[in-house]
């Protein structure tokens, strides 16, 4: 059944608001709990390195038995892949399976590109933390993908330098701010960390932890609340630290940032579970000197984290073998052998909770060999992932963040004004695209 963007969005909004099960019903013909035994030849678009080796396990094992063969087609990631998927879907030629970042799912669903596979993967739900599974349902009874990898956020710090300067690992954001100030008084040439505007996912994850819900629905319309109270709190907090000079204001992933980490000029980093890989390259001389702790909380009674990154495996509405594709997606992200291969070949941190402390995750990352319980602690933190609320134009919000917050950080100007700009640009773009927006 064809949908205009307006018609599709209204259906989406009503489904989210009412918890209905029909969000993508018109795009899916897989049937409730339908099984499929092949022969079926499926195509999978993914950017994950080494995925072809993981898929070989399927083709030689369960896939061979069920006569379901999967072929990997390597793709670019991010907005480039989303655009390619939508272009292919418009021509009715999207692949059977796609790797999709969680924040891209609403865009793909609102364009009727993803099938509801709830009838085929419902049993997988118990393998994931609630906050992770929720990202693939968009708050409905439908399921648009199976979680693959996640990026629970945590706090990284130079254990040796915290001891040298007499600092205590902060458990609240107020303590974090005081730690930054204390370090500046003790060692003026040092910074606790930096506020960076060149990766929107960091700010989104921090806002998520604070309770932000940037996109929700109201009746048959979207509601955009990027400037909600939770996000304003986050913006004010970091903007205040930058303005007073308690932390640095330089972007991440630059040679200067790498040097600051490697030489101990910056002694902490708010990041995610994938940080060891980045630190290995950025600060090779400090291997074994870092430790990881839970993200500071806004109050002592809270225990939750945000998510920075992560993706899922989705089945498209163009697939003629949706049940078979869903079966593969569930296997890929819940089977122990598949998860071990994903960790080994692709270096991912699995969304499936049972895989987070087994196989490749029995030992800490080599860079954190001094912290034997690294992955045990990471798994505990992952369980506290707060729910997300993504919308159909995350790319616009992220682009505005980089521009507006980038200028505010550089000039040490008002982060609140930058947040307002982010809100206004996102709403304007949605209206321009024909989405109904309530305020």
TrEMBL record:
UniProt xrefs under SUPFAM superfamilies:
Periplasmic binding protein-like II
Keyword flag Ion transport: no
| Keywords (A to Z) from UniProt | Cell membrane, Lipoprotein, Membrane, Palmitate, Signal
Entry annotated with the keyword Transmembrane: no
Signal peptide residues on this chain, from the entry's feature table = 1-24
Query: What InterPro entries does the entry give?
Result: Bact_solute-bd_prot1, SBP
What name appears for this protein in its UniProt entry? Sugar ABC transporter substrate-binding protein
Q: What is the lineage of its organism?
A: Bacteria, Bacillati, Actinomycetota, Actinomycetes, Kitasatosporales
């Amino acid at each position: 059944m064809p949908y205009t963007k307006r018609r599709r969005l209204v259906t989406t909004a009503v489904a989210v608001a009412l918890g209905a099960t029909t969000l993508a019903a018109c795009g899916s013909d897989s049937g409730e709990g339908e099984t499929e035994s092949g022969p079926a030849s499926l195509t999978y678009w993914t950017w994950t390195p080494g995925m072809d080796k993981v898929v070989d396990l399927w083709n030689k094992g369960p896939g061979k038995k069920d006569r379901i063969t999967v072929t990997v087609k390597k793709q670019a990631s991010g907005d480039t892949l989303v655009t390619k998927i939508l272009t292919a879907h418009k021509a009715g030629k999207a692949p059977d399976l796609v790797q999709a970042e969680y924040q891209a799912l609403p865009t793909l669903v609102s364009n009727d590109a993803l099938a509801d596979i709830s009838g085929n993967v419902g049993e997988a739900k118990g393998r994931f933390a609630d906050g992770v599974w929720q990202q693939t349902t968009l708050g409905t009874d439908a399921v648009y993908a199976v979680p693959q990898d996640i990026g629970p956020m945590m706090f990284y710090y130079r254990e040796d330098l915290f001891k040298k300067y007499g600092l205590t690992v902060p458990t609240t954001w107020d303590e974090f701010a005081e730690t930054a100030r204390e370090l500046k008084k003790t060692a003026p040439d040092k910074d606790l960390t930096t506020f960076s505007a060149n990766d929107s996912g960091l700010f989104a994850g921090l806002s998520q932890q604070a309770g932000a819900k940037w996109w929700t629905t109201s009746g048959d319309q979207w509601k955009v609340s990027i400037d909600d109270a939770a996000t304003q709190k986050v913006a004010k907090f970091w903007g205040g630290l930058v303005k007073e000079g308690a932390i640095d204001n330089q972007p991440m992933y630059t040679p200067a940032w790498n040097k600051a980490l490697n030489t101990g000029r910056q002694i902490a980093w708010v990041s995610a579970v994938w940080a060891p890989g980045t630190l290995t390259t950025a600060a090779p001389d400090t291997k074994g000197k870092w430790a990881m702790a839970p993200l500071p909380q806004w109050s002592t009674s809270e225990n939750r984290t945000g998510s920075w990154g992560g993706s899922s495996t989705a089945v498209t509405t163009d697939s003629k073998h949706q049940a078979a594709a869903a079966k593969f997606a569930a296997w890929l992200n819940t089977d122990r052998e598949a998860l071990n291969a994903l960790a080994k070949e692709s270096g991912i941190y699995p969304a499936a909770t049972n895989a987070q402390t087994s196989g490749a995750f029995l030992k800490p990352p080599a860079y954190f060999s001094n912290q034997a319980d690294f992955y045990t602690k990471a798994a505990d933190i992952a369980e506290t992932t707060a729910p997300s609320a993504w919308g159909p134009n995350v790319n616009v919000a992220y682009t505005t963040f980089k521009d507006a917050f980038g200028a505010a950080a550089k000039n040490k100007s008002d982060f609140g004004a930058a947040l307002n700009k982010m809100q206004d640009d996102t709403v304007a773009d949605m209206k321009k695209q024909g989405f109904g927006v309530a305020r």
